[in-house]
């Protein structure tokens, strides 16, 4: 019974967060998260959670952050892309805020159109990015 009540409370909090988000506002609270990926994936997902509402970050910038943290000369942006692609809590863990170094909107499991709409919802000027044409392989 207590476990069920905690689950209901969590779902209510997630629903409230999503309602605020989809009304075009930044939620002023966070949802408790528990990542279940590899250490590397968890590290990438934690960085995603630090990207401010209405801002973007490149795969390369995330890779650089991880490299610095680990004391490595460099880290693969493609590896970061792989971890971003395995994020199962999109929107709350905002993988839609990650863009290509060249300004391209690539790699969103929900589709590029949804990525564009989410960024617009956050008042990001999407004209600064190149949007692949429909049917273009990413």
The gist of it:
Helices cover 45% and strands 3% of the residues. It has 138 residues and is mostly helical. It has a domain at 38-128: Orthogonal Bundle (Arc Repressor Mutant, subunit A), CATH 1.10.10.10.
Name the features.
single chain, 138 residues, mainly alpha, Arc Repressor Mutant, subunit A, 45% helix, 3% strand
Provide a descriptive summary of the structure in words.
It is built from five helices and two strands; from the N terminus they run ααβααβα. The termini are far apart. A two-stranded parallel ribbon has the order 1-2. The protein is globular, with a radius of gyration of 16 Å. By secondary structure, it is mostly helical. It has a domain at 38-128: Orthogonal Bundle (Arc Repressor Mutant, subunit A), CATH 1.10.10.10. The longest helix has 21 residues, at 2-22. Residues 3-34 form the Methylguanine DNA methyltransferase ribonuclease-like domain. Belongs to the MGMT family.
- Biggest sheet details: 2 strands, parallel
Residue windows where pLDDT falls under 50 for at least 5 positions: none
- How far do the termini sit from each other? 47 Å
Shape, principal axes of CA atoms = globular
CATH homology group of the domain at 38-128: Winged helix-like DNA-binding domain superfamily/Winged helix DNA-binding domain
Strand proportion: under 5%
Give average pLDDT, whole number. 92
CATH top level label of the domain at 38-128: Mainly Alpha
Strand pairing plus helix content: what structural class?
Answer: mainly alpha
Can you write the helix and strand succession as a string? HHEHHEH
Helix residue percentage: 40-55%
What's the number of helices? Answer: 5
The fold-level CATH name of the domain at 38-128 is: Arc Repressor Mutant, subunit A
Widest sheet, order of strands: 1-2
């Amino acid at each position: 019974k207590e476990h069920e009540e905690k689950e209901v409370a969590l779902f209510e909090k997630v629903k409230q967060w999503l309602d605020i988000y989809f009304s075009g506002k930044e939620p002023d609270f966070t949802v408790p998260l528990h990542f279940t990926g590899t250490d590397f994936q968890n590290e990438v997902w934690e960085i995603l959670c630090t990207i401010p509402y209405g801002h973007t970050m490149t795969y390369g910038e995330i890779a650089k952050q991880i490299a610095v943290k680990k004391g490595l000369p460099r880290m693969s942006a493609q590896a970061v892309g792989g971890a971003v692609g395995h994020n199962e809590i999109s929107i709350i863990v905002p993988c839609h805020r990650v863009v290509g170094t060249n300004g391209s909107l690539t790699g969103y499991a929900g589709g590029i159109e949804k990525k564009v709409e989410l960024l617009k919802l956050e008042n990001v000027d999407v004209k600064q990015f190149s949007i692949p044409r429909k049917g273009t392989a990413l």
